[in-house]
Amino acid sequence: MSKFATLMLVLFVLAVVPGMAMAENGGDAGAEEVPAAGEISTGKGVALLGAAVGAGLAAIGGGYAVARVGSHCIESMARQPEAAGSMFAPMIVTAAMIEGAMLFAIVVSLMIVLAV
Question: Within 25-83, where are the H helices?
Protein backbone atom coordinates (compact mmCIF):
# COMPACT_ATOMS: atom_id res chain seq x y z
CA MET A 1 0.00 0.00 0.00
CA SER A 2 1.35 3.44 -0.88
CA LYS A 3 2.16 6.03 1.76
CA PHE A 4 -0.69 8.24 0.55
CA ALA A 5 -3.24 5.44 0.81
CA THR A 6 -2.01 4.55 4.29
CA LEU A 7 -2.23 8.18 5.37
CA MET A 8 -5.77 8.50 3.99
CA LEU A 9 -6.81 5.31 5.80
CA VAL A 10 -5.40 6.58 9.10
CA LEU A 11 -7.11 9.97 8.67
CA PHE A 12 -10.40 8.27 7.81
CA VAL A 13 -10.21 6.13 10.95
CA LEU A 14 -9.40 9.19 13.05
CA ALA A 15 -12.41 10.97 11.58
CA VAL A 16 -14.82 8.05 12.06
CA VAL A 17 -13.82 6.78 15.53
CA PRO A 18 -15.01 9.86 17.48
CA GLY A 19 -18.33 9.76 15.62
CA MET A 20 -18.76 6.09 16.46
CA ALA A 21 -17.99 6.85 20.08
CA MET A 22 -20.66 9.57 20.12
CA ALA A 23 -23.16 7.22 18.46
CA GLU A 24 -22.42 4.57 21.10
CA ASN A 25 -23.75 6.97 23.70
CA GLY A 26 -26.88 7.69 21.70
CA GLY A 27 -25.48 10.84 20.09
CA ASP A 28 -26.70 13.05 22.94
CA ALA A 29 -23.80 13.94 25.19
CA GLY A 30 -25.90 15.85 27.71
CA ALA A 31 -28.51 13.15 28.39
CA GLU A 32 -26.23 10.32 29.47
CA GLU A 33 -25.84 9.23 33.04
CA VAL A 34 -22.68 9.72 35.03
CA PRO A 35 -20.73 6.43 35.28
CA ALA A 36 -20.35 4.84 38.70
CA ALA A 37 -17.07 5.12 40.57
CA GLY A 38 -15.56 1.92 39.16
CA GLU A 39 -17.07 2.24 35.68
CA ILE A 40 -15.06 3.75 32.81
CA SER A 41 -16.76 5.34 29.80
CA THR A 42 -14.80 4.17 26.76
CA GLY A 43 -16.88 6.26 24.36
CA LYS A 44 -15.71 9.54 25.85
CA GLY A 45 -12.13 8.32 26.07
CA VAL A 46 -12.04 7.28 22.43
CA ALA A 47 -13.63 10.57 21.35
CA LEU A 48 -11.10 12.59 23.33
CA LEU A 49 -8.22 10.48 21.99
CA GLY A 50 -9.44 10.97 18.43
CA ALA A 51 -9.75 14.72 18.95
CA ALA A 52 -6.27 14.97 20.43
CA VAL A 53 -4.68 12.90 17.67
CA GLY A 54 -6.61 14.82 15.00
CA ALA A 55 -5.50 18.19 16.35
CA GLY A 56 -1.91 16.97 16.61
CA LEU A 57 -1.90 15.64 13.04
CA ALA A 58 -3.38 18.89 11.77
CA ALA A 59 -0.66 20.90 13.49
CA ILE A 60 2.13 18.63 12.27
CA GLY A 61 0.77 18.50 8.72
CA GLY A 62 0.29 22.26 8.55
CA GLY A 63 3.78 22.94 9.85
CA TYR A 64 5.26 20.51 7.33
CA ALA A 65 3.30 22.07 4.46
CA VAL A 66 4.32 25.63 5.34
CA ALA A 67 7.95 24.51 5.67
CA ARG A 68 7.83 22.91 2.21
CA VAL A 69 6.27 26.01 0.64
CA GLY A 70 8.90 28.23 2.23
CA SER A 71 11.82 26.00 1.32
CA HIS A 72 10.75 25.59 -2.31
CA CYS A 73 10.16 29.32 -2.66
CA ILE A 74 13.59 30.13 -1.21
CA GLU A 75 15.15 27.55 -3.53
CA SER A 76 13.37 29.12 -6.52
CA MET A 77 14.54 32.58 -5.46
CA ALA A 78 18.10 31.31 -5.20
CA ARG A 79 17.92 29.91 -8.74
CA GLN A 80 16.33 33.05 -10.25
CA PRO A 81 17.02 36.08 -8.06
CA GLU A 82 15.40 38.44 -10.58
CA ALA A 83 12.02 36.73 -10.05
CA ALA A 84 12.16 36.90 -6.25
CA GLY A 85 9.71 39.81 -6.04
CA SER A 86 7.02 38.00 -7.98
CA MET A 87 7.38 34.80 -5.89
CA PHE A 88 7.17 36.29 -2.43
CA ALA A 89 3.50 37.39 -2.36
CA PRO A 90 2.08 34.06 -3.64
CA MET A 91 4.24 32.22 -1.09
CA ILE A 92 2.78 34.29 1.77
CA VAL A 93 -0.79 33.80 0.49
CA THR A 94 -0.26 30.03 0.14
CA ALA A 95 1.23 29.78 3.64
CA ALA A 96 -1.70 31.76 5.06
CA MET A 97 -4.22 29.48 3.34
CA ILE A 98 -2.45 26.40 4.70
CA GLU A 99 -2.42 27.83 8.21
CA GLY A 100 -6.10 28.75 7.93
CA ALA A 101 -7.00 25.19 6.96
CA MET A 102 -4.80 23.85 9.76
CA LEU A 103 -6.45 26.11 12.31
CA PHE A 104 -9.91 25.08 11.08
CA ALA A 105 -8.99 21.40 11.48
CA ILE A 106 -7.71 22.01 15.00
CA VAL A 107 -10.87 23.91 15.99
CA VAL A 108 -13.10 21.14 14.60
CA SER A 109 -11.07 18.52 16.50
CA LEU A 110 -11.29 20.47 19.72
CA MET A 111 -15.05 20.99 19.31
CA ILE A 112 -15.36 17.24 19.86
CA VAL A 113 -13.90 17.79 23.33
CA LEU A 114 -16.65 20.30 24.09
CA ALA A 115 -19.34 17.99 22.73
CA VAL A 116 -18.29 15.07 24.91
Answer: 42-79
